[in-house]
Fold this sequence. Notes:
Structural class: mainly beta
Strand order of the largest sheet: 11-12-14-15-16-5-6-7-8-9-10-17
Strand content: 35-45%
Helix content: under 10%
Amino acid sequence: MTRGAVAGLAAATLLLLACSVGATSGDEPVAAPTLGGGATTASTDAAATATAVERLRAGTAFVDRTSFRADVDIASQITTLSHTDNPHRRSVSTVSMGGRGIEIRMIDDELYMRSDLDLQGVGHGWMVLDPARVPADFALTFAPGRNDPGGSARLIDAIVAARTDGPQITGTLDLTRVGSGNGISFRPGPDGTFPDGARSHTFHATLDAEGRLVSFLIPAANGIPNASLRYSDFGAAVDVVRPEGAVAAPEALYPQLGLGG
């Protein structure tokens, strides 16, 4: 019986109404992922995995230290672009889905959004949101630990095994542990289950010459759509303008935010 998984985006970019990408059929078997010289996940050295995970965590320290750009792509159906400067509390994010989408601007404690999606009870002009009413998995905040629109921490936390080869880190991750939040999210399919292989799914990551994470790629396999996270433009200025004419967000908006519900 074919099972499906769902990949989606939240936090700083996506609404529940349009956050999911359906999985592929999952009928084609995929060989067991390998690490380095053909070693399977079961035989991967624990020390090598710990070292790789440590390098990845160190490679995302820039999130709290400088400005950056984060690009997320899921199956070429949903793409997001975020320019974030956490030290100076500035961020602007956009999401595109079939030529439509939303834009979010953050300035200190101010939160603005506009959408051309047809959300029930919500218009298409600029709105001012109440941060206290935004669901946790929408994560519109500069708070450490929740301020990465790429959601790299959740991906790293889900790693099962990994090996380092210069700037390249390859291995497997348990997609059932990724959960919902910033960046890439994976949810069970309509039957409430994940496809076979989801607990040991291949990933490929790359660090730049300064040790920063610049890409985290999840290839399509066994019903899981391909997804990618890329970081760039470190240290570039992030200028965010307060939109004119913004009105208070209607009550109808808040239940439609995030990946919960």
